[in-house]
Structures are given as structure tokens and as C-alpha cells.
Amino acid sequence: MAENSNKVKSTSDLELKDRLVAINRVTKVTKGGRTFSFAAIVVVGNEDGVVGYGLGKAGEVTTAIAKGVEAAKKNLVKIPVLKGTIPHEQEAKFGGAEVLIRPASHGTGVKAGGAMRAVLESVGITDVLAKSKGSSNPHNLVKATILALSELRDAYTIAQNRGVSMEKVFKG
User: Fold this and answer.
1) Contacts for 79 with CB less than 8 Å, ≥ 6 apart
2) Structure pTM?
């Protein structure tokens, strides 16, 4: 499989909005008692085809979220969005989480739950049907959703890769 070249080069010109997907309180037991800290998974996107996720860990919730946002800005990917939906159906698996995303007609809305909804809305997709199978772990669900979205290809990209015109792509 060819290396995906849809990484976003610079974040300076993007208006990124962040969404908190999950926050987890973790405990470390020491001889002095329990030490609490927080792990936050955050999704950032410009609602126009760019999305990324990050994990932040800190002693306070706000610091963990801020670290998650900074980490998310470092791994942004470009997603093809056509008229508010995706170009074709796609499945992906990450760990125990499996996701299926399908294009939907205008007016359907984002039919997805939890972590998948946060990712799809951050990309800027307004009409999509999504199904989460397997694990509902938000970390793996976010990663599987972004993997599925990054494997999407629009007709222009396919024509370019094959070295043919757009008309030939649709004729077969």
C-alpha cells in the first residue's frame, strides 16, 4: 500500500476548533497514597477537510486538554469532503474498534455517536451514516475513524494517480 500523502504541512493559516472527546482520571498508587492525574483525548479540525487528534496528560484537566490540543495540531490530515459528505463508503479497524462510514444524501445529518461524531463534525462533514462495531474505547474509535477518513480518495485524486482524464475514471 502506498504511503498516504495527505498530511497537512502548516497549521499557521488554519482556523482550528477543538472538541474534547473523552477525559479520564487515572490513579497512581504510591507509598504516600494515591496520586490523581488526567488524560484527555482531543480532536481539532477546521470544519473544511482538515482533522487531527491528540492525547494530553497532566495533573489538571485544563492543562491536559491544552496538551491534547497541541498534540492534535502536530498530526493533521486532509480529508476529501464532497458537498458535505464523503466520496465513497469506507471501513477501518484500529485495535478492537471497527468503523463503517457511508455517504448520505443532503439533509441526513451526522448519524454517528460519541467519539465518531466529534471527528466527523471537526472534518466538516454534514451528511454521513456511520456505524461503530466492536470496542467503544474512545481512543481506538477516534483513531479508527481518522484512519477510515484518511483512506478516502476523491475522483480527481484517482484520475491523477492513474494518469487519465476525469471522464475515463467514471466510464470504467
Assistant:
1) 6, 49, 50, 51, 86, 123, 149, 150, 152
2) 0.87
